[in-house]
Every structure is written in structure tokens, then in C-alpha cells.
Amino acid sequence: MVQNVEQHAINTVRVLAADVVRGANSGHPGAPMGCAPMAHVLFGKEMTFNPKNPKFINRDRFVLSNGHGCALHYIYLHLLGYDVSMEDLKQFRQVGSKTPGHPEAHDTPGIEVTTGPLGQGISNAVGLAAAEAQLAATYNRPGFELFNNYTYTILGDGCLQEGVSAEAASLAGHWKLGKLIALYDDNEITIDGSTEVSFTEDVLKRFESYGWHTLSVADGDNDVEGIAAAVAAAKAVTDKPTIIKVKTTIGYGSLLQGEEKCHGAPLTVDDIKQVKEKFGFNPEESYAVPKEVYEFYGARAAAGAAAEVEWNALLEKYVQQFPTEGAELKRRLAGQLPEGWEAALPRFTPADKAVATRKLSEGVLTALADKVPELLGGSADLTGSNLTRWKQAVDFQHPSTGLGEYSGRYFRYGVREHAMFAIMNGLAAYGVNIVPYAGTFLNFLTYGWGATRLSALTHLRVIYVMTHDSIGLGEDGPTHQPIEVLALTRATPNILTFRPADGNETSGTYLVALSDASRPSVVALSRQNLPQLEGSSVEAVAKGAYVLQDAADAKVAFIATGSEVSLAVDAAKLLAEQGVPARVVSMPCSELFDEQSVEYRKSVLPAGLPVVSVEALGTFGWEKYSHAQVGMTSFGASGPAGQLYKKFGITAEAAAAKAQAVIAHYAKAGYVPELGVEF
Amino acid sequence: MVQNVEQHAINTVRVLAADVVRGANSGHPGAPMGCAPMAHVLFGKEMTFNPKNPKFINRDRFVLSNGHGCALHYIYLHLLGYDVSMEDLKQFRQVGSKTPGHPEAHDTPGIEVTTGPLGQGISNAVGLAAAEAQLAATYNRPGFELFNNYTYTILGDGCLQEGVSAEAASLAGHWKLGKLIALYDDNEITIDGSTEVSFTEDVLKRFESYGWHTLSVADGDNDVEGIAAAVAAAKAVTDKPTIIKVKTTIGYGSLLQGEEKCHGAPLTVDDIKQVKEKFGFNPEESYAVPKEVYEFYGARAAAGAAAEVEWNALLEKYVQQFPTEGAELKRRLAGQLPEGWEAALPRFTPADKAVATRKLSEGVLTALADKVPELLGGSADLTGSNLTRWKQAVDFQHPSTGLGEYSGRYFRYGVREHAMFAIMNGLAAYGVNIVPYAGTFLNFLTYGWGATRLSALTHLRVIYVMTHDSIGLGEDGPTHQPIEVLALTRATPNILTFRPADGNETSGTYLVALSDASRPSVVALSRQNLPQLEGSSVEAVAKGAYVLQDAADAKVAFIATGSEVSLAVDAAKLLAEQGVPARVVSMPCSELFDEQSVEYRKSVLPAGLPVVSVEALGTFGWEKYSHAQVGMTSFGASGPAGQLYKKFGITAEAAAAKAQAVIAHYAKAGYVPELGVEF
């Protein structure tokens, strides 16, 4: 039998969840009340963590994939002694609180990853578990189990319906991530009512098909021992991830229990009173936590703190015994890239041959592979097209496959863009300075935008290597040619959009992307060869835009990105022949340009100078930096790249003609609109 | 044994595929050569279709979900007598051809849906099969099986790895779509090599878990009778979709057969010669089709034409016997909406109460439900939040569930946004004037953008009912608050982005969205209540933007959308108090505004008038229509909506102050930059 204090602790959580959601007059009481027993098993019995140092590196990870139930997690953070006070709980869903409507990793101590958008959490958990496996295989030595944490996740029907979780679960099975344990809150309720209306598949059978170990607990409302036994059984199977189907009652204790009505709205005051009475609490008291409950969970915290002390001692011994690995690990734990890594970045002169930026990216990654062991690469089954793999790379694979090792650093994600991005978020969130990068075609960035958006919101250094970045990809046609994708990335806060023009800018792109540990980067790369440009610079990329080539008394400027910078150079030459001096500005990253001083920005795009932008994607948004635009206003087409540029009027001739028109127009108007005025 | 002509026909297709890809010097020979036998069974034996009328409404549908193998489909279209000539095959992947690099439904007769982005085709096929089920249940009568076609799809490993296909397959199983038959080209090869590197799940077991009927064919390279028998067995099971795993050899016949090298690049000239010799063709001849092969497939075409004649006669009898249904069906087949449907659209005056546009949308849908039977609604498990269901709606469900009927018009998609969008594409592509619409939160549009993009590219009338369209959703926080999403939709060709401000504009939005049969619409709707505005108009929505409220001698204009239009009205009042007359422009759809005459656009935003935009999403892109912007420049936050508007400076006061600053700045500058100059 469950000890009384444990049952009381679980009921405390249920009652407190009802209070917290009621206090906000907004939120989701149902999942916390239903999931309290399984959360108790994890936080109160199984997991190791240190509330006083939420970043203790070998802690067990916990992800609440059904993030809308976050009152549950916040309550546990509070009870366990994390820096989440009762006052914080009372500020649930209020502006500026540590307890927002969905868990945000950047803002709340103890939250590993940002969840809420369904399916992301379980997919992040796959990444967290893969990170543990990779680090354990890389750094553990006999007697030195530095990395051996478990990754737990609670997820609901919603997460299981999302495609991203299906992709990630298939990979987790393939990778045999035995330390990943998922608890499926099977309450048979979604917002539209019974799962019978839309979700009647056999979930455990599906997970078996992925190669998971599957278990069930029939009474998740009460059978704490059964849940604990299932978790123990999960741990005993070391070469398969485990999913435990835990049958629960949503809103357990409420008059509405088992109904969708208690999913996403506070319980009534009267209902909360009867819940309290039912569970032996004073119905007139709110936000009450019995002393023995604090004490019970407090003991868990103390055990966790001790575990960290022990781990730190082990690390010191490790550093002595394995000085090379130890030093590397300590560096990584400090969040530092290796000293002098930048020196490995290739540099080019205009005499060097024309190369596609995807190929130049391969050169950078190859140059960095040995120097920066925290780089973990991959591709969504386009390795040979994205050129994301360095020659000596070892694949991340379970050793039994004979196809790689867990210490491998190249991930074969399969055709699963959304999971790839979400798994990269998990890899980055693990810590130890992991820098995940992976490739697909730029157009398929939007297959996984749900995860990319969370890279940005959560400040994760994830590098999206997105090749085939325009109509320049040619024959694959409009289904593969991005038009709108860079507008999307540029319109999104806290993410950098790079479109390097040549070798130096490609190196500069990686220089910034790796150095900036607080945001993700999207790197758009060409399929086609591009010349090495006169005036291009590795260092200037950090400024976002710079004068690549200038002309005395310039009458117009071209501002271009990536594959169209050389086209702009050609257009300037045409104009020069026509007696019109023109400046060429390369803009590898508009967001970084926006962050420069007014003086710098004005030095690049001075008042009075007409500007024409050139980019072989949609023109949307370019009005900010230019008076006229050369670009796409329709979807692309299937055909050889050169012919497509002509068909869509993206040529040096068209750009020069547009520049002449702009000059003439504003000469007549008597003014040139100043760009970048700030109000 | 297979008759000789059939084997010869299959080999003809293989050889021709090698020639076609070689001719383009680009493309994918492997899948066509491997899939030729199964395609032969479908096109040469099983399917009914009329090449002379590719739109014959009761034709069997075929979707090549692994769209990169489209040479296969184009070759069959040619052999069967569709308007795809040998010359068209020679123009494979060339600009302006009927044979682009991936199948485009809008451009090639006989292509049902646009595929290539993996996972879309199978998901469209679920929509096509659902459409058949819905129409059959709605219109068929004893003796009048007007709708009874099958939907076939060929798909590969890539499609099966994508989450969208997992979502769609789960729904197909739930819906028991017995007339959906998928042939899985199990060639064990993806671009990265063997499927062993990333795709080791048990696919058939997974589909069993979804409730599918599963079958296998061991030798898909040669066992045509086995494939045919499997298809017959699939047809015999009427309450489950079927997946047939067909083991094939990629590039069958090539020296590279079974290797990834023949996946995505032409075979060498020498290899093609040996393929031809192996299959008994003249190695020196290219693009050769034996007469008996043309004759064999020609007979199929003749049978299909006869089937259409028979069907047309049946329809005429039906019209006589069931005049009401018959007239409705004929109207729908003609692509006409019901006469006078627009009269049902609600209209409002400023005296009417404040209502959220999501609620106003519910009012429109409720008003139209009876009038427009081709409206097929749904939601991704947010029915009560999106307000997408009219009260008397019947759910689309298999009758055995007791939860609805196949004639039901409301789809419970579950938490599966991507599949929902792809299934809507399939519903719309079926024809019979089906207008699918469905809801989720605006922020989760990007979970399914891979499908939405194809709505636009393929000119499908699909209506995206996207509620909770800004920080105005409040407490759910930044994980749910869209910032970048409308920049994405506006940057995309051939899709309309609506953000109505009140009741009249919501009605006007649906007026345009339903009337425009050649493109999709994204309708962004508020969670919060909005006042009915003085000056708002149902009809003006078609112009994209219009002067909602004017002031004599206006010194500035506000341009706003949706929930911020009333805020702009308030800002104009503040300015009036400060002695500054201001115009208020409502812009429910910027894309429609761009399509108006210069005169009209200048009448709304005249030269010389400073403009301030107000929209509670990211400001990216608004430079096109305004000199200064009020909006979001970061992610949102969790808290009550009113507090968030203040926190992020989106208030009437802030808008008025910005207007004053803009007026002052340009007074000093001596000019006001003209907006919308075209070069």
C-alpha cells in the first residue's frame, strides 16, 4: 500500500492545481489532477535532480509534453524547493510571472524545454535522451559513469496525434534509446470530447511497431505502486525506449471528472470546495500545503543535492585520470567553444573558383568537425544534397546495428523534418555546449516550423542548414522552390537568417551562428555555384550588411543576398557602362543589420541614395531596405536554373533597368525617401 | 502467367522512364523502374478513368505520393491517351512543359493533386477517399451508385516517414475508408542509403494499429498477378483502408538496381543501353513504344470512356427520379454555388453588440450551413474554441460508430493540423464544388504549412479558419501567440489573408473566400470581442482595404486590420482631440488591395498622407503600406489580453503618439514618401 503521506501529497497537488487555475481564472485543471499520481512517482520517488541547481548536468530530465497541464509542473517545482514560490503559483498566467500559461524553459527554473504546442515535448525528450546517450558514449569510462540520467516525459492524447511525435518516436525506437521513458496520460478525453470521435488507434501497438517497450497501468488514479513498478520495469529494458499507458481520469476529484469540461477552464468555487472535502482538506483554505508534504518532497531535494556533490567529486577524479577528455568536458560544461576554433574557418580570394554555398558549408563543417566536438550534425535524408556530413563522420547509431556508434556525431534523421528540428531543440537543451545542426531543403523548413519557432522562443543555439534556397535549384520545380520562407524567418523574433554570397560569407555565417549561444540560425545555401566576390568578408557578416563594392559618387545602391550578390555586381557593371556609378551592398543577415548603430546603418544605406534589392525569393518585406525590388512575385517553375532566372526577370539587365527607373523617378519627385527612419 | 504484352508494357515503361530522365539530364529513374508493375496493375487493369475527360467525376483517383517518380505517371498519361504527348515527355522538367519535375495538378491533365513534398500525396488521398464516402452517402440511392470510385496511391519510404502521413493514416483508419488503397513501394532505399540507417519500424504493424487492412507482395518486380490479387483482396474489405507492401527493386533493370545511386540522377547512356537489351528493346532507339503497348492501354481508355457515357445516363435518370438532389448535384458539378447564397450572410450596424470575430464566423457558418451543402467543416480538436461547428451539424463518421454518418459534414480531425490541411486539399481536389474549411489557432497554421502552400500552388479553394489570432488570446502565452504567421501568408503567392475587423467584414470575408474558386483563404479571427464599426462594409472587403472613417483635411491615416481597427478608430479620436484630423483605413486583405487599380489604391492611401499601421502581430512587411508601424517586435507573453496590449505598446495612445511623430518628421523633411510606387 501507498504510505499515507504519499497519497496526501498527491491529493495536495490535485487541490493546489484547482486553486492555482481558479486563481488565474484561466488554465487547465484536468490534466494536473489526473496526472498527479504519475508525477508523484517521478518527482517523489524516481528522479534525481537538485532544486538548488536546476542545471546539475546529470539530473534526470522531465518534460511535460502536454504543456497546458503546467500547473502540475509548477506545483512540483514549488514543493521540491526550486525557485518557484507560492506567490509565483498565485501569479499563474500573469504578465511577467515565472508561471506562464505554458512552460517556458527560458523563464522558469526547472523547466527543461518549452512545451504547449502539442507533440513538441515528447520530441524534445527524444533529443534529450539522444544527447545523454551521445555524451555517455563519448565521455564515460569504466568507473566513471558521468552521464547516465533518464529522460521522462508525460504526454497526452494530443501529443500522440501530432505527426511530429510520430516521427520522433520512430527515431527513438530506431536509436534504441533505453533511458527514455514516456508516461501516456490515457484519459480518453480531448477538447472535442471523447477520443472516440477522432483517435481510436491502438497506441501501444503503434509504439511496438517503432521498436518501443510498452506497458500499461490500469488505474492511474490510485495505483501509485503500479506506476512505480512500471517505471522500474521500463528501466530494466535498456535497449528500447518505454511507453507506459496510464489510464487516468481527467480532473480526478472534480464533479466534472472524466469530462472535457474540466480540461481547459477553472473548476467552480463550489466544485473546488467539494474536491477539498473529498481529499480531507479544509474547504475554506486555499493554496494550502501540509507540512509533511513539504517535508516529503524536501527529502527528495536533499538527496538530489547530495547526488550532485558526489558527481562533482567524480568529475574531478575523471579530470585527473583522463586529462584530455576532462579538460574538454570542463570547457564544454563552462559553455566555451574551443580556444581559437575560428582559425579553422576557410578564407577565400576572388581568384578562388566558383562554388555552391552548400559546398562551402560542407567545407566549413569539415574544417570544424575535429576542432569542435560539440557539433552534432545531421540531415533529413538529404545528406548528399545538403552536404552536411564530413568525410570521417561516424553515424549516431546503436552499436548493435553495425552502422555507427552512440558516440557518433552524425544523425540520420530520415525524412522527418519536424522531428529533426524538435530533436535538435532537445539536443541543445541538454547542455554541455551541444551545437546541433542539420540540413534539409530550405522549402521544407516550413515542414517543421512548429519546432523552429520554439528554438527561437527558447533561445536555443540550433543551426538550420537549409540548401537549395531559391528557384536556383532548377528542375525540381515550384513544390521545392521557396518563395515565402525567408519572410517567415525574418518576421520571427530572436532568430538569425543568413544567406551568404560566397566562401568568406559562408565562413562568417558559421562564425556568428556558433558564437551566438542565445539564438538559432537559419542558413540559406545555394545549390548552384557562385563566384568568390571581390570585397567579401568573413568578419563583416556580423554586421548583417556591408558595402561589398563601392563607386565614387554612387547614384544608386543594390542590396542583395546570397546567390544574387554576384548578380548585383554584374548589374552595377552594366550601370557603370551606362555612366551610372552604383554601390553594391551584400546583406547576409538583415536581423544583424537592424542591430547595428544608426551611424553604421546610414553609412551603408545613406539618406538620398536610391536602393534596389535583389533576391530570388519573394519580395515581401524588402520595402524596409529598398525603394524597388527585384525578386519573385509568383511561385517558381520547373526548368534549368538559368532559364528560370530569365523567365522571372531576375537578371543583371533587369536590375540595372530597375535602378535607372528608380533614379529617374526620384529625380523627378525631387526627393529620395529615407529608409530605416525610426519612430 | 502474365501475358506477354503486359510484361512488355511494363518493360516499355521502365525503358521509357530511363530515356525521359536521361533526356532531361535530371530526375528520378529509380522509382518509375521499380514501380512500373504496380502502376501497370492500376492503370492497365484496375482503374476506371477517361483520358478524354480527365475530370470524369466518378473516375478512380490515383495519387503518386512519391511525386519525384512522376516520370512514371507522365508516361502512363501518355500511353493511356491523355493530352500528354511524346513531345511532352521529351520536355520533362523543362520550362513551360506539362511534365514538370514534380506533378502539378493545375498544369497537367490527369494529375489529381500536386505532390513531391513527401507525405502530402497519401494525405490528399485520404481526403479524396473521404470526399467519395461523403458524396456517396449524400447522393447515392438504391440503383443509383453515382459515387463509388476507388482512391489509389503509391507511396514510398519517404512518405511513410513524414508525420503528416502518420496523422492522415490514423484518420483514414478511424474513418474506415474502405475504398482507399495504398501501395507501398518497399524498395528499402532512401537518399541516404539503406532504410536501415533511419527507418526500421514495422510499417504494416503500424498501419494495423491505425485500423488498416494490410497485405504484402513479396516480388513486386515480377509478380503482376500477385499485385492484382492483393488489390482484389483490398477491394473485398470494405470497412478498412488497405496498404499493400510491395517489395520492389529500385531502378529494376539498371546496373545500379537496388542502390540509392539510381534514385535521383539519370542512368548513364551505357546503362540505359543494357537495360534496353535486357528487356528486348533496340538499344539504339529512344522513346520507343511498341504498337501493342499503345493498343493495350488504349483499350483501357476506351472502357473508361464507355463508363463515363453510362454514368452520364445514370445521372440523367437520377435527376428525373430525385429532382431536388439531382438539381443540387448538377449545380455542384457545374461549379456553381447556390443562387442567392450571399443573402444569408449576416449584416450588422454599430448598434449591434461587440462580438469576437471567431463568434461572428460561427454565425456566418451557421447561416450558410443549410444553404451551401458543399461546405465541409472541421477543426483540429478545437471545435469549441474555433467555433467552426454549426449546431445541427452531423459529424462525418462511419455509421458503425454511432457518432455520425458518412453524409455528415463536420470532420473531427483530432490534433492533426498538417493532415487536416492536406485532407482538405484532397476534399477540394475531388471536385463537385466541395468547399472545405477547418479551424485551429492561427499560430498552428505553421504546423501544417507544407499542405497550405500546396493549396495555394494548386489553386484549391480551401478556407483556413484560424482563431486566436494575436496576443489578444491572452494567457496561453507566447507559445500560442502568432507573430510571424501573417507575414508568411502574405508573402505567399495565390493565397488570400483575411483579418476582418467586425461582423460586416467577417461576412465579407466569407463572401470573397467562397466566391473565389481558384485560391485558398486564411481567415484570422479574434478570441476577444470587437465592436461593430461605423463605416464597416461587407462588400468593401473585396477591395482589400477601404476608408472606414474619414476626416476632412486628414493629416495622417491609420491603416489597421482585425482587432486593431477599433483601436485605430480610438487613436483617430485622440488625435481629433489634439486637433489633428485622421483617416482610418481598414485593410481586411492586403493581397486584394494590391490587385485594385492604381486609382483606387491612391484614393485610399493618397500621396502626401503619412500612414501608421496598427496590427498586433509582427510589423514585418508593413513598410509597404505605412511610414511607421505599431505592432509586435518580440514574442508575446502570458497574461490577460488587455495587459499585454499595454505591455507591448499597442494602444490608441501609442498609435496617436506615433502618428504625431510621423507628421512632425515629414513636415521637417519637407516630403512624405509616396507609398506603393511601382517600378
UniProtKB/TrEMBL annotation, chains A, B:
Enzyme's top EC category: transferase
Active-site residues, as the UniProt record annotates them: 417
Keyword line: Calcium, Magnesium, Metal-binding, Thiamine pyrophosphate, Transferase
Its EC number(s): 2.2.1.1
Annotated SMART domains: Transket_pyr
Ligand binding (thiamine diphosphate): 68, 116-118, 158, 187, 263, 444
Site (Important for catalytic activity) residue list: 28, 263
Cofactor(s), by name: thiamine diphosphate; Co(2+); Mg(2+); Ca(2+)
Domain Transketolase-like pyrimidine-binding, chain residue ranges per copy: 355-532
Calcium recorded as keyword: yes
Any one GO CC term of the record: nucleus
GO MF entry, a single one: metal ion binding
Binding-site positions, Mg(2+): 157, 187, 189
Pfam families attached to this UniProt entry: Transket_pyr, Transketolase_C_1, Transketolase_N
UniProt catalytic activity: D-sedoheptulose 7-phosphate + D-glyceraldehyde 3-phosphate = aldehydo-D-ribose 5-phosphate + D-xylulose 5-phosphate
Free-text remark on how the cofactor is bound: Binds 1 thiamine pyrophosphate per subunit. During the reaction, the substrate forms a covalent intermediate with the cofactor. Binds 1 Mg(2+) ion per subunit. Can also utilize other divalent metal cations, such as Ca(2+), Mn(2+) and Co(2+).
Cited Gene3D superfamilies: 3.40.50.920, 3.40.50.970
Residues binding substrate, per UniProt: 28, 263, 358, 385, 468, 476, 480, 527
The protein's role, per its UniProt record: Catalyzes the transfer of a two-carbon ketol group from a ketose donor to an aldose acceptor, via a covalent intermediate with the cofactor thiamine pyrophosphate.
Family, per entry: Belongs to the transketolase family.
Self-association and partners: Homodimer.
NCBIfam families: tktlase_bact
Descriptive protein name: Transketolase
Species annotation: Phascolomyces articulosus
